[in-house]
Amino acid sequence: MIERPAGASRTPSGPLAGVAVVELAGLVAAPFCAKLLADLGADVIKVEPPQGDPARRRGPFPQDLPHQEKSGLFLYLNTNKRGITLDPGLPSGRELLGRLMERADLFITDLTRRPARRLALDPARARKEHPALIAAYLTPWGLSGPYADVPGYDLNVWHASGLGYITREQHPGQPPGPPVRCGNPQADYALGLTGAVAALTALYYRNLTGRGQALDVSGLEALAFMPMAPLAFPQLDGRVVGRGTEARYPGGLLSCQDGQVLFGLVEEHQFQHFFELMGMPAWAQGGWWQDRQARLDNAEFLTQEIGAWLSARRKADVIREAQARRVPIAAPFTSADLFADEHLQARGFFVQADHPVAGPLSYPSTGLRSNGPGWSLRRPAPLLGQHNEEVYEGLLELTRRELTGLREAGVV
Amino acid sequence: MARRALRPRQPPLRPARGMALSGLRVADFTWAWAGPYATTMLADFGAEVINVEAWPRTSNMRSQPPFKGGAVSIPNGSGWWSTNQRNKLSCTLDLKRPEGLALAKRLVAISDVAIENFAPGVLERLGLGYEELRRVRPDIILVSMSGFGGSGPHSSYVAYGNHLAMAAGLAHISGFPGGNPAQVTIPYGDPIGGLTGALAALAALQHRTVTGQGQYIDVSQHEALASLVPEPLLDYALNGRVMGRRGNRDDDLAPHGCYPCKEENTWVTIAAASDGEWLALCRALGDPEWARDSRFEDSHGRWLASVELDARLEEWTRPRTAEEAATLLQQHGVAAAPSHSGASILADPHLRARRFFVRDESPEVAGKLMQGPAWKMSATPGRVRRGAPLLGRDNDYVLRRLLGLSAREIAALREEKVVLA
Description:
Structural class of chain B: alpha/beta
Number of helices of chain A: 17
Largest interface: A-B, 158 and 160 residues
Order of helices and strands of chain B: EHEHEHEHHEHHEHEHHEEHHHHEHEEEHH
Low-confidence stretches of chain A: 1-11
Largest sheet of chain A: 6 strands, parallel
Radius of gyration of chain A: 25 Å
Number of domains of chain B: 2
CATH class of the largest domain in chain A: Alpha Beta
Strand content of chain A: 15-25%
Low-confidence stretches of chain B: 1-16
Helix content of chain A: 25-40%
Mean pLDDT of chain A: 93
Number of helices of chain B: 17
Shape of chain B: elongated
Distance between the termini of chain A: 46 Å
Number of domains of chain A: 2
Strand order of the largest sheet of chain A: 3-2-1-4-5-7
Mean pLDDT of chain B: 94
Number of strands of chain B: 13
CATH topology of the largest domain in chain B: Rossmann fold
CATH topology of the largest domain in chain A: Rossmann fold
Strand order of the largest sheet of chain B: 3-2-1-4-5-7
CATH class of the largest domain in chain B: Alpha Beta
Helix content of chain B: 25-40%
Shape of chain A: elongated
CATH superfamily of the largest domain in chain B: Crotonobetainyl-coa:carnitine coa-transferase, domain 1
CATH architecture of the largest domain in chain A: 3-Layer(aba) Sandwich
Oligomer: heterodimer
């Protein structure tokens, strides 16, 4: 009953069909936000500066050779969008952008306070000129407050949110190292995802009232929303959550014959079933492990015994046999593991698209499956300026001569 | 892309009263964290979220620490639960009893969205599967959020947020080179799954507004998180290469790190992307002699010499507090911020100026500060209107006001323990 994304051709549009979006943004957060909407059927026009989105200059590239049409990052973040070039800093460029915004339901940008004002694209101006438009500003720190005009990158936001402080290496019983970020810009992606939820919230309201508004979506706040317990702990019982490993002791990341698995059980029945899987060693007979405190008191011994048992087995076997007993064990999958994963294959998680320059490529899809119109990959990311004619002539009804003039003036 | 007039198929149940989702009703069958996180996003912006606590198996968030003074107090004392459940209603129904099940269906019949994060198959076994719900509400939107999705060979696999971070490929690329995979102490897969669930519900509502049709959405939290970790997958697809770990470093930029400060276990992050930001950093440091080294002239040179660069910056950050260092660097236009703990973040001047933190009003933890709404809306701002509900607080409102039961009927349900409290 549930359609797979692989069946994209059967779902030519999605739940957001008919929603018109203009994106003025680069790199990750705001383009990812607009991609989420585009993949669900929205018509997104991506506005790039004439030299292109900076993501075109970030890898991964095939054979590490930079090429503006072959950045894996750009290709992923811009599926299903139409792409035009435009310099909003020039008066005629700004005017054309205004005309696109007038036709749009949503404007998604990563402009921070100062450049937004400089381009007359700040929230107050957007609301005045386009009262029905939803203008979403996805920025590292938000549009107000002392950091508003300070640059901020994924690194800064991740750590400032309180998430870096509690991101730890898995070394059971070892003292923690320094705070660390994730291996890809999670703060940017989580900001983009939060921005998409915010945009649809505003769209719901607009459907009822016809009113647009401005959304100030700050990466810091989107991320700082997550560590709820770490914020509450010091206030309620005086403890500061750090990078220790006590919470899931006994266990942690333990070694099998061919790699590591995460052993982190919570419930008594999980321990019981795991010890049964181990063949119920003599020390596990008494049932004392049903007591959480007893498990903690004997954590070192237990971790050693469990580790010894795991070390003689293959991780895939351990995961399968444990999960068959409803015992949660997972392994730190690599990208190769994910492509080989039978579950993701069965669900059609990876989808193919053929890009005119980069060629055919497998893309990760989505965590959403719908029995109605859902997620689809309808077209690959746009070439730089690919839809200039289509948008400027077809949509804004410029003449060929006017468009040529704009090109010569460097606007397009 | 001519704008289509988007009109609701039918007038909202109640007129919008100043919040984005006023008039939207959600039958919330979620527990643990990912599902409740999804409904928090909706409740903060005005939706009426009715958490059906399927007692006796109530939400396990109610038993999660922290508790005031460290004294375990279930079901109404958890500080984590109280943050996450603010703005929601609590209705306790025994879903394994026919009377409880019938009431749950009646609630769905007057709701726009039903949302749940049981293991796949549980909802059907309870008699609340999509086909059943559609019978009582033809345009219902049902969002099911499981760890690995409702189909596929691993759909029954048990996972917490940390296992999902492992299985989604995030842990393997996080951490320091030569060390072990790293992961967030909180189950990071849950908020990502939760946001994805909220996105699913709102996208489906848009579709319903235009077409009048509801739908069933199967959210795999595993895939939701994997779609936020595309770089290693694309690198593998393009080059057959398995991405490793880089600590706090960046592929192209330096400096890009988290540096130790004066007090024990305090840290500041510093990044400089452009030459302009590098020069600003030099100015903030007082134009030291070492920074004039020709190796630091351009960004590639700085990246190649990043080990030495990090050592120099650490010499500068060590004698300073994280706040002093961050403030001074920010004044010069450098991207810098403390790496906050759950305690130090409460004093962050920026978050305070934006009034991000609000007071919790749930009785047992009243007064603690918690996260306010996750984004700001100019016309319809989110608000914390009520503290988290004591177990069953809203039973009378739901059963009498919404479902029209008489006081006598409700008393009988309490007597029979179909309804708790």
